[in-house]
Write a structure and sequence with these properties.
This protein is 25% helix and 30% strand. The chain is built from ten helices and 26 strands. Strands 19, 20, 21, 24, 25 and 26 form a six-stranded parallel beta sheet that branches. A four-stranded mixed beta sheet has the order 1-4-3-2, with no helix packed on it. The protein has a four-stranded mixed beta sheet with strand order 6-11-10-9, with no helix packed on it. Bound molecules: zinc ion. The site of zinc ion has 5 residues, from loops.
């Protein structure tokens, strides 16, 4: 029995020892594993860390890359970074990462690459969709380019902004730019070229063309040009008839369309006219003396051409109001018209202050006429006419004396019995035409007063002549044998 108790005690002690040994072995293994772990610190971050320009360099990329201890809840590794990174400047920065745990240290060299991968931005001024008319020159509204790193790089933008606007259709302008890191940006603008412009029709010989009655009418010629289609002369349609056996105005119409359907139209007036025959005899009581005062001036040349066309001779009562046109006095005489004296100065205050003053002015004008035509004039017209009352302001009774005095000096004076109203009553060509025609109708012999320094009045002459010839009137210049028209003297 006693022996049994002793065996029981031995067996318990043996088990205790075995347990203690086991615990010791386990603790030793744990200690060894832990020590081995602690001796291996790994820095697992990449050799090169890329950082976008302008953003922060996030060091946590490195911290989280270290290896955690197996049993610790917390990573007790300390990390230190040696070296600086400037994210405001592109480039590669070398830094040293040092990881420490207890007395163990591990280090790694890491390159931090600060890069710019952001493309610039191109901004187009105005609309990116533009419509322009064919033929107009294209002017780009402008653009600008900005980069996050380089700033304003507008001068580096490339774009072909040459557009042939004679071609109808759409053109896309591509604007491109690269920043210093090679990031590229694009922008587009669409330009629509439309053609709403009709061709131009050009009439050789102008839009008024004269054809003498009885002669043959030949088309004077024309051309047509379109901005897009170029020369379209052969597409012009001409319509209208001219009857050269009858005087009058005829209209010829020219039309043409371009390939965009824009139609152009032009008209030419053909005037079939009949000049006064050279041997106009026996005018009877239908005589018209057209007279023109106060010239010559800028419209006198045009008037001479109209008169030539109709073979009508008139009388010019000239002044020296526009000395630059003095040479036209010679032309008037050469072309068969009568040159007569009006006044050198046409200054009432000067010429009507005395008889002598009047003749000084008259002689001054006559000298100019002699210089231009080679001979003295023998017909005069008083400024304001012999019936004027304005002279009373400067010299009472002077007109009564002058009407005699000029005749004593060998001149004949001539007033008028038809006034065109062009001295102030009207500035309308058609009114001048009406006034003159009405006046002629109410006289047997008409002496018509017009002024060739008035353009609208000169423009009335053609219609007056056409009417007069068609009504059987004869137009004549005043000569020394013409019966003069005299107003009643009022001063
Ligand atoms: Zn006058």
């Amino acid at each position: 029995m006693r022996k049994l108790v002793i065996d029981m005690k031995k067996r318990w002690a043996k088990g205790l020892i075995t347990g203690l040994v086991m615990i010791f072995i386990i603790l030793t293994i744990v200690f060894i594993v832990k020590s081995v772990r602690d001796s291996k610190i790994e820095i697992r971050c990449p050799d090169t860390i890329v950082v976008e320009y302008g953003s922060d360099f996030d060091e946590s990329v490195i911290k989280t890359a270290t290896k955690k201890h197996l049993f610790d809840e917390k990573d007790k590794t300390d990390i230190e970074i040696e070296g600086d990174v400037d994210v405001t400047k592109l480039g590669k920065y070398e830094i040293k990462v040092v990881a420490s745990r207890k007395k163990k240290h591990v280090s790694k060299n890491v390159v931090v690459d600060v890069v710019d991968t952001q493309a610039p931005v191109i901004s187009l001024a105005c609309d990116s969709d533009v419509t322009i008319e064919a033929g107009e020159s294209y002017e780009d509204a402008g653009f600008s380019a900005n980069d996050n790193y380089d700033g304003d790089i507008t001068d580096k933008v490339e774009a072909d902004i040459q557009i042939d606007t004679r071609i109808v259709g759409d053109t896309t302008i591509v604007y491109s730019v690269k920043d210093s890191s090679g990031n590229e940006a694009f922008a587009e603008r669409i330009v629509h070229v439309v053609d709403t412009t009709a061709p131009g029709i050009f009439l050789d010989g102008g839009d008024v063309y004269y054809v003498k009655k009885g002669s043959e009418y030949k088309e004077p010629g024309y051309s047509a040009v379109d901005i897009c289609d170029g020369d379209v002369t052969d597409k012009v349609c001409v319509s209208g008839d001219v009857d050269t056996e009858n005087t009058g105005r005829y209209t010829i119409t020219y039309t043409v369309s371009d390939s965009s359907g824009n139609e152009a139209r032009a008209e030419r007036t053909i005037k079939v006219y009949m000049p006064m025959p050279d041997n106009a005899v026996n005018p009877g009581d239908k005589v018209v003396y057209l007279t023109f005062d106060d010239g010559p001036g800028p419209y006198t040349d045009k008037l001479l051409d109209i008169l030539d066309r109709y073979n009508v001779k008139v009388t010019f009562f000239v002044t020296n109001g526009k000395p630059d046109y003095q040479n036209l006095i010679a032309k008037e005489a050469q072309r068969g018209h009568t040159v007569a004296i009006h006044s050198a100065s046409h200054d009432y205050a000067r010429i009507y202050q005395s008889i002598d003053a009047y003749f000084d002015d008259l002689n001054e004008m006559n000298d100019i006429i002699i210089a231009q035509t080679g001979k003295s004039a023998d017909i005069v017209r008083f400024p304001g006419g012999s019936s004027n009352t304005i002279s009373r302001r400067y010299c009472r009774g002077i007109m009564s004396q002058l009407v005699c005095a000029v005749q004593e000096h060998g001149f004949r004076y001539c007033d008028w019995n038809v006034s065109s109203g062009d001295a102030g009553a009207t500035t309308s060509t058609s009114q001048v035409v009406n006034n003159v025609i009405d006046g002629i109708k109410s006289n047997n012999v008409s002496i018509v007063l017009q002024h060739d320094i008035k353009n609208f009045s000169v423009d009335a002459v053609e219609q007056i002549i056409e009417w007069g010839l068609s009504e059987g009137y004869t137009f004549l210049p005043i000569t020394s044998t013409t019966p003069m028209s005299h107003h009643g003297v009022n001063n």
